[in-house]
Amino acid sequence: MGRWMPLLSVALGLLAALLTCCYAEENYCFASRAKSCSKCLQSGIGCAYCPDENFNGPRCDLYENIKAHGCSAKTIITAESRMSIDRAQAIDMNLAQSQVYPQLVSMSFLPGEERQMDVEVFAPTKGPLDLYILMDFSNSMADDLDNLKSMGGELARLVRELSDDYTIGFGKFVDKVVEPQTDMRETKLRQPWPNSDPPFSFQNVITLTNNVSFFTSELREEKISGNLDAPEGGFDAILQAAVCKSQIGWRSESTHLLVFSTESAFHYEADGANVLSGILPRNDEKCHLAPNGTYLLYKEQDYPSIPTLVRVLGANNIIPIFAVTNHSYTYYQKLKEYFPIAEVGLLQEDSSNIIEVMRVAFASIRSKMSIRAEDRPKAFEAQFLSTSGVVSEFGNFNVKPGEIGRFRMKLKAHRQIEDNPVCGLPSNENEGTIRVKPSTFNNAVNVKASVHCPTCECEKTSIPNAPRCHGNGNLVCGKCQCRDDWLGAFCNCTKAPSDTVTSMCKGPGMDEPCSGRGDCQACGICACYNPEQYEGPYCQYDRTQCQRYGGFLCNDRGSCIMEKCACADGWEGDACECPKSNQTCLDSKGGICNGWGKCVCGRCECQSSSLAMTSTCEPNFQFQLGACEDRRQCVQCQAWKTGEKKDEEECKKCPFKITMVDELRKPKEVIDSCSFRDEDDDCTYQYTVHHSNDPNVKEMEVEVLKKKDCPAASLLWLLPLLLFLLLLLALLLLCCWKYCACCKTCCQSCLALLPCCKRGRMVGFKEDEYLLRQSLLTSDHLDTPMVRTGPPKGTDVVRWKVTDNVHRGANHPQALIKPNPKELIQYPVSLRLNRKFSENLSRRESKDAEQLRKDVGDNLNEMYKHIPGAQKVQNTSFRMQRNAGKRQDYTIMDTVLPAPRSSYADIVKLTEKNVQSGNIHNLKVVPGYYTVATDREAAGAVEFQEGVESVDVHVPLFVKDEDDDKKKLQVEAVDVPLGIAEIGKRFVNITIIKEHASSIFSFLQPAYTYSRQDGVANIPISREIIEDGRTQVMYRTRDLTAKDKKDYLTVEGDLNYGPGETQKTVPVRLLELTEKDGLLEDKQVKQFVMDLSNPRQGAKLGRYPRTTVTIADQPEPSVMMFKKSTQSFNTSDPTYTIPVVRTRSTDIPATVKWRTQKAKRFNLSGPLKFNPGELEKDIVIDPSAHPGPIQPESFQLELFDPSSNASVGERNTTTVNVTNVMAPTQIGYVSQKAASPGAFLPEPGNPKARATGPRDIHLTWDPPPGNPTGYKVKYWIYGDPENDAQVLDVKSPQAELTELYPCCDYEMRVCAYNIVGDGYETDIIPCKTMEDAPGEPGRLAFNVISPTVTQLSWAEPAETNGNITAYEVIYTPTDDEMKPVGAAKKVKIDNPKKRMLLIENLQNAQTYQYKVRAKNSVGWGPFRDATINLASQPARPLSIPIIPDIPIVDAEAGDEYDSYLMYSNEVLKSPTGSKTPSVSGDDYMMNGKWDQNFLFPGGSGTRNLSTSSSPMSTLSSNYRGAGGSFVTDTTTTTYLSGAGSPYRQDMVRGGTHTTDVIMRKRSENRGYTDENIRDSIVMGELSSKFPDLGGFSYAGMQSSSHSQFSYSLPQGSRARKPSSDVSEALYNLDMVLQDARLTPGVPDTPNRLVFSALGPTALKVSWQEPHCERDILGYCVLYQLLNGGEVKKINLTTPAENSVIIQDLLPNHSYLFKVKAQSQEGWGPEREGVITIESAVDPKSPLSPMPGSPFTLSTPSAPGPLVFTALSPDSLQLSWEKPRKPNGDILGYVVTCEPLHGGGDLRSFQVNGDSSETSLTVQNLTENVPYKFKVQARTTQGFGPEREGIITIESQDGSALSQYSNQSMTRREVFHLPTEVNTRTNVSHTMVNDPYFSEGMMMTTQHTETSGVLTRQVTKEVVQRSVMGGTTVTKKLFYDS
């Protein structure tokens, strides 16, 4: 026993820990596992420690938890913080100076604690003001300057209005005086424009002064200056004006305003590196003004960045006002968002309204106030709220001057910083003085904040060798600290040998310690792996192995303990499935099972009875025909001796007796009130049905009203009048007989009814028998003709019926199985509507069909509601019935009615009755036609109109899988209820033979929709193999509304399937719309069908032997959204009407679904269908149609799941607020649920739920009257079925719901119970749990732009536990041991949708650790981290992020940089289209509009497009200005080699060779050498699927977005000459190079021909060594102008030389090149290619290229560059320009698409047309998978050369980037450049993983040169900006010059 006592104590401790496992996820006190009292208290606010030595629970936990576990409240140790206001001088509004209140506050914080403090600030009405005007002095601002000079007086009046103590100053700026911003010619440096000053960067002209006259006179002396490019250097000027306080004259106590006036955009950081000749260092943010006020270091420093300006202006309390013209207004409007307070004003072109702009801006600024917390220690975070508690962005508040502004500051101490406790931080990081102040104030509230890290006194007085610790340890704060090798909670165990401990963990009969479900720990204690599943001393019990009921463990009414169900009170059974009470067996009278059964396990087991019974053994008349109808005949015979049971013997069989009464009971007191008409006397009688008051009487009582309601008696004196009227009617009929044919027919019909007038008319079936094969059936109906003989005049209606399986005898096994009469089955019903059929009715989505479907449904539901158990009709459709006589054009309506099987006769009778009347409620039908069917029989009627001799009967065939191999149906003509015909041939037999097929052919679906843009409709035909082998089936298309050779090309033929083949596809070519059809506004929907027929080799047709193909012209999708974001109603409104509006493409039908959320009484949903032309639809909710009282509430409606041609707009949700309207007071109300002895308890009162934590809800209520034994709390997640609720049994009127989900809506109900059973439940009680800290973000992904720039992205946390409000990114330089070697940078991203960050200016070759975490309202979650060295990673292909506005941060920014985020698509370059531009051209204008794509990364798309090429030739440009600006170019040429291809000697197998070239300033007169490659084109192997074009064979076009192409001119195919110039060139080359026959040892064709442009006239031609059995001796290269001329030849005698540089080419001329190799056996065949170097030339000398002009390789017959635009994660738009010189007239294009790395099918698209620019939308792509696209023009001469591009739609978190894991190598080489060029190159060798290339080694060569002024016309480009280690900046773009 002694040995087990310590084990028992430890087990109790572990059990206590397990009981608190629910806190392990969110309770930071318990989760800290603090080993000491002090560490516990320092874990966070609210943590407490129990020092009681007898306490066995967790010692460190929340105070409430420790107390609940039994720790004495007196002994619990807690900690408190403090706060004091040290100086609080009230604001004096009479003082004309800024003031704050209070002035000094001291606060201490426990870790994680948060405090709030109210702050007051005051700005005087006219306080001191400093106004500095900074104006653009470029030539385009000349008229603006003139206007400003004339406004000196107005400006003075303006500042006097604003302040009595003001100063005003003036500065001017242009741009850096360097090339290319400024024209550096001497004459232009002296005077760039007539009557102008020399160019300058920035100059302070007028220091701040209060002398307005001096200001005006000095301003009038100023003259305009000028520069070249459009963006100006205003940022240099702003920074100098801010930091040069003394030179500008800023005063410390005044408000500082800076007016920045320009009409252009701005240069900013990195433009100096991009544009200037040389790399500039960053701006040092210091003052560098000369004595005359000019900026000195404009050549030595780069422009400042936007983050720098935000920080510097904020630090100097300067508020910017941007007064700009319309050309650049949008850019500054976005720039304004980054400043806490700033304004943007729109200037006129001549700035004539600048005074008004400043006045409006001043007024706006003075009404705002931006609060900041400066000098904040790292351990704290601050927020500013309005007095109502709303958080303000940037701390902005609207405060008018002269008023006291009040706001609230929320200051919070972090618990942890980067997973480290805040108490472990240095003192300067967890304490300090925080200055809280408006950005325009110098005065501040000084908050002395510190983190309080408490310590425990009990730790200072430990008890050594305490008895509690068995003398083997010290007792410290109630806890044993063991010495040496002693273990256990009480130091009573030692480390025993392994086998001894293991044996202690084995129970009787066990082979494994702890049953194999846990670890055997010291002292022989089992720690189960999953304590929530396994339990017991040896983990031998599994808590999931108890019995289940309904799938629930212990019926969810008990707990599984020791593998047995421990049922809750009131439940019993092995699975707790049986309630102990008889509550569920009580009938309506309070008895048990109505005396007709016994209660077993909570259910009534009723005695057998012919009547349908309820669940409590009471007769269920409502389920049958209703209480009234069921007793009608018996009431009639007993009361009046009439009706069908008037025979006395029949009447005695009635099971009840009636009671005649003088007055009937009220309807509320009875089950049913009945009223029927007696056919015998036409009187109406009434009776009621109700339960007997005698509980012993089981039958219901029927009381009949004694008095009938009969019509008045007829009057005999009316007889003569009636006779006269009859004679008059006869006379009129005689006239009609003579003159009116229609009346004559009617009379004949009437006369024909007389026996004497019958003339032998006969009706009957035409055929005797049908023999059908099931495999050949194309329909589930058979139209069999019925004919009429004899005189055809008059109308005959014939009733018919059909019976299934008549071949089965009475004793057949299937016939002996009687169906369940209560079974709900489908009743197909067909009626003929009294309206003509139109084509619109065949289209289900048409407006006419939708309206008619609604009318039919409403009226049929109204008719069939009298059928017990019938539901609403469904699947209504419309068709025509052929061979229907004169009714052939009328509409046949088919629908399905779900109803009980026993209702068949009633449905037929009710349908026939209403059809013969011609009306079904308000629906007009044609009498004489109907069909009602089940799954085994059917009945109906057909009509022979006058003159009609034959009609078809639409007979259902009842084809089912369980049919016999040979079954027979019999159709019978039953009778002729209307007409004189007699039935002749009464029966027709239908035999269906069910074959056992070897295969079954079927279409996959009955309908397909294809767009014309698809070009081809690929229709799959499926084969189900039963017996494998060969088989075939025939297919054929047939016109519907689509026409052959107009909309599509018809196809027919046989499909042959071999063994194992299960599916084949039939392509049907779709044709483009003609011009005429394209102009039609109301285009008809085009459809055709494809049929399967004639299956052979034992096959048969399956479910879909026909499919309908719709050819859709996909319009722009409709956009549907709620009209308003909120709707308001009151409880008295009869309905809630919520409008939904639609925009765009309103001429097509569209559908969207809607649903309610968080409504108390209903959970509604449904579709909302917009018909063509409908712009608005209403969602109507009837609150009275749902149970429960209408109460005030708020709920939401959501739109979701739009149809394929629609989308949901911005307002996809709307909030509905229902407010209360006072109702009249109810007097004398008595609750029907009042408690009485032995009765059910009423619902508990006043239920209230309150969330007490992220996983806990506290629920309270008032006990109901009576003596409840306990309460049951049912709770479930909002939106889940209430049946899935969990039930908690409690004994007191409160409950704690635990282990819930954080930030989750829950619903609850409470009921009390006693010995009778469960009482009434309360209404639903909603409550939402609190938020919890989020989990860690998803995996980090890096898009490496350069060794110093990376794009970091991440995924949203899997467990958000609330709404994510922000992310934080921290990146720290580390060494190889992951230790920090520099300061960490922190960036906070306040927009949770922007999960991407571009980090610039990282240290080159430095390893960084990146950490990202998420935040919600609770706080920060854990970090996700990754470590990477960018220098070891290859740069990714060009990429535009999915989210266009990527945050950009700078690794070299200051400490406050984390408060700023700049987004890359929000600061753009200005256009050059101003009224008086200061540039010489409009280089970046497209059709007169600025090309937004060029301006900034991400400006054109919302998806991440990664482009690469294979082989890839990339032209990357740093061009960042408009005309005349300089460009730094980068060319990347990539060679990809696949498996089995020969490799160059410098290639590594499985690798890729990449050459990167970066160019700078180049002298005008110099040669072009190998290192100057600018552009490349690769001529690859020919692999075309298209036929030989007789002379041209185009191959392997490899391109991204360049004008790149290649094609081959095969040697052996010259019968057809494409043009005379090509023919002439080929002939001349043949005269020089004679082809030799290939013999063994002769080299093959060179594998790859690569052209790389070095300049406008220089070209490098390279190739790969061809395969040869002998050694290669050398190569020969020939080239010649394509239009003729001298053939030039270059011989290379060194085999290692496989490239040559040619420098004497002519610009813009096409050349034909040939390359071949030589061995000892002779020359091999040549590789040919035609190439052109396009460039800008001097107009006066077309053969002389412009110095510095751009150049590119192209071909005139290839399509233009491919431009990709992402539309969604799985679709993109591809566009290209028409070839400039196609080889023939263009008929269209062929586009192919396939995954780059295989694994998918090749998709082809045909695009017709000859427009200048063509586009194609490609759908069903996959994110993060590279695709290769090829575009080829189809001309009258064949196919032109291909244009190829590779594209990837990247996911935001890059989750698929790791699917390829091959190696690549990056190599940077140093090249020798000419002496006048400075080169800086880094060399590194690193092995990395590159996910983009599945095979191949990538080697990169990168070198640099310089160049002069460059002007280019850019028309198509995609931009990527990156920064290279503070030394070079590259912006990569693909473009077409």
Draw up the topology in text.
Blueprint: H1 4-19, H2 28-31, H3 37-41, E1 47-49, E2 60-62, H4 63-68, E3 83-87, E4 99-101, E5 104-109, E6 114-122, E7 129-136, H5 142-149, H6 152-162, E8 166-173, H7 186-190, E9 202-209, H8 212-220, H9 234-243, H10 245-248, E10 255-262, H11 271-275, H12 306-315, E11 318-324, H13 329-336, E12 343-346, H14 354-366, E13 368-374, E14 380-385, E15 396-398, E16 404-413, E17 416-417, E18 420-421, H15 427-430, E19 431-438, E20 445-451, E21 473-476, E22 479-482, E23 486-487, E24 493-494, H16 498-504, E25 518-521, E26 525-528, E27 534-535, E28 541-542, E29 548-549, E30 552-553, E31 558-561, E32 564-567, E33 571-572, E34 578-579, E35 597-600, E36 603-606, H17 627-640, H18 648-652, E37 658-661, E38 672-678, E39 683-690, E40 701-705, H19 718-739, H20 741-752, E41 762-765, E42 769-773, E43 781-789, E44 796-803, H21 813-816, E45 824-836, H22 847-864, E46 874-879, E47 890-900, H23 904-917, E48 919-920, E49 923-933, E50 937-944, E51 950-956, E52 966-978, E53 982-983, E54 987-993, E55 999-1003, E56 1007-1011, E57 1016-1025, ...
Parallel strand pairs: 5-20, 7-8, 7-10, 10-11, 11-12, 37-40, 41-53, 42-54, 55-62, 56-63, 64-71, 65-72, 85-89, 96-118
Antiparallel strand pairs: 1-2, 3-5, 4-6, 6-16, 8-9, 13-15, 13-19, 14-16, 17-18, 19-20, 21-22, 23-24, 25-26, 27-28, 29-30, 31-32, 33-34, 35-36, 38-39, 39-40, 41-43, 43-51, 44-50, 44-52, 45-47, 45-49, 46-47, 48-49, 49-50, 52-54, 55-57, 57-60, 58-59, 58-61, 61-63, 64-66, 66-69, 67-68, 67-70, 70-72, ...
Helix pairs in contact: 9-12, 19-20
